[in-house]
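quick one
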Amino acid sequence: MALDIIGLGEPLIEFNQDPSRTGEPIYRLGHGGDTSNVTIAATRQGARTGYITALGADSFGDSFITLWQREEVDASRVLRDPVAHTGIYFVSHGPKGHVFTYMRAGSAASRLKPESLPLDYISGAKFLHVSGISQAISAVASDTVFAAVRHARTKGVKVSYDTNLRLKLWPLDRARAITHATVPLCDVLLPSLEDAEALTGLTDADAIADFYLKLGAPLVALKLGPEGALVATAAERRRIAGHPVKVVDATGAGDTFDGSFLAVLATGRDPFEAARYANAAAALSTQGYGAVTPIPRREQVLALLNTSGSARS
Ligand code: ADP
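structure w/ adenosine-5'-diphosphate:
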């Protein structure tokens, strides 16, 4: 069966601090990694998805295989690296929000080579989704992303790209160089305002959309936190209002937006409807702890859209 969306990148085991505990912190084990989260979010909205990565031959790798089976993300082309580990990150919650600490250097996913890509698999999808994190984890991972993206383009597979800037992984100048080189190769660009401000030096959402359209992205969905999103093409742009909620944990809101946005686009609907839906899904994802558990399913998203009077599906 043809897949709607294939993600490529690094899954990470998550240890998320339980902020309700006082004294010694307690970390709950979960699953994260931006592109894996995006494929799971898309699947929960009804899309058929697959994932490309390499995992360590360790129990954390096994737990990802179990997760993707449970979530119905096709992992049939995921590789296991016998000598490298599955990446890990910690989320701590402080007065300024969540703080990430990574233990991912040398991980199996960061060693994935262009020669190991399942090109035939990518050829059959509607969308290939990659991110700045998929590129930042190592030089060879960056080469692998470019190889996958270029292959997708030759096969008519649409490329979706979240800039996902992580300055712990690479310096700003390198991030800018690689990100700006990738934007013209993508069909759907999904930056957050915070990333885009750092990457472009601009602060105005419309100016940022103009910058990326001019650079060559045909469709930009700029994520604006509680304000929702600005969706822009050369022909039309609209601000799509968010669903303001009292946030419990915003980890993965951007990933939920991306997966939901792509899942709706894959059904053939327009990007403005996709953003309306994705705002609702992303708002719901902030209502629980961790990156994966609170990602809502289609019925929950439709219920929120119905209550707010903006359901279209
Ligand atoms: P990221 O999570 O990548 O930093 P944003 O903070 O812009 O990106 O959040 C992504 C999306 O999540 C937003 O476009 C919006 O749909 C939703 N969102 C984020 N924060 C809130 C919030 N406080 N209330 C409602 N929706 C939110």
